[in-house]
Amino acid sequence: MMKMTMSDKMHNLKIHNSSFDVMIIDDNKDNLSYLVNVLKNFKEYNVRPILNAELAISSIESKTPDIILLDIKMPCIDGFKLCKTIKSNKEFCDIPVIFVSGLTDYDSKIKGFSIGASDFICKPFNDKEIIARVNLHISLRNTLRQLKDKNELLNIEIQQRLKAEKQLKFINQNTEETVKKRTEELSLANKELLNKEKQLLKKNESLLELNKALKNMLDQRNLEKKSIEISMVENIKEYIGPYLDLLHFNIKEEKCLEYLNIINRNIDDLVAPIESPLHAVYEKLTPSEVKTVDLIRQGKSTKEIADIMVVSPYTVSNFRYSIRKKLKITNKKRNLKVFLENLV
Fold this sequence. Notes:
Keywords: Coiled coil, DNA-binding, Phosphoprotein, Transcription, Transcription regulation, Two-component regulatory system. This protein is of the alpha/beta class.
């Protein structure tokens, strides 16, 4: 089996992070320089050297490192105190702390582990050991982070599933009642629509009956009007015509004959519209169709009629078709203007 090199291990770590921030805290400049030189050979490591604990605390707060290499023997605040401070802070407690020290006694190691240290590197230092341990604890931290993230996602998914199951249970419990209620609402709405439809049908029947009655009244009125007109013409011819003939026969004076002729012509003009076939035609037409007939008799074209009546040529064409239909001359070859002129 091929052995995994340090570069391979670093590559695997890069999958989860592009670079790693390594903080080294040591008041001994030689030790600090040595550790920096060991770690800076890896471009994946961003090394931050710190000379005392006070600077370390502010530096950690400004930017959280991925791992801390910490010396134990330092003035003011030693490594144990600093480690305890770091581990007591919820924001930084998961940062791996590796003690790098000349202390090799059992008690120092027990104390370090008891306050939260992850590992010990004892002097004299070994480059490969330093890199291996740093790499190991960064990898462990990344793994823990991934597990934590996955655990959080799993908890979210569990909560979502529980919520969905609760909603589904509620829906199942209320589905039958909801469907029943909705069915009743639809049934009621359908009944209302049927009632409205019946009412509309009744109103429509009433309107049809009213329209029929009005048409009958109009037809009766037209018949009465026609009867009166015919009676008037007949009365004129019966009661006035003979006397006019007698006057015409007995009067010899030229002036009187001229007046008599005027009276005859005026009477003829009065009764002419009543006796004219065109008058009968007008009775069948609507007001718009009557106006169209008058304009056709004047020789106006469809476009001219449309302009005069302020309608579209299409509407005038419909008037023409309706007039032809009512006059029973649907044959397009027959000229409508000529037909109307022949009625006069």
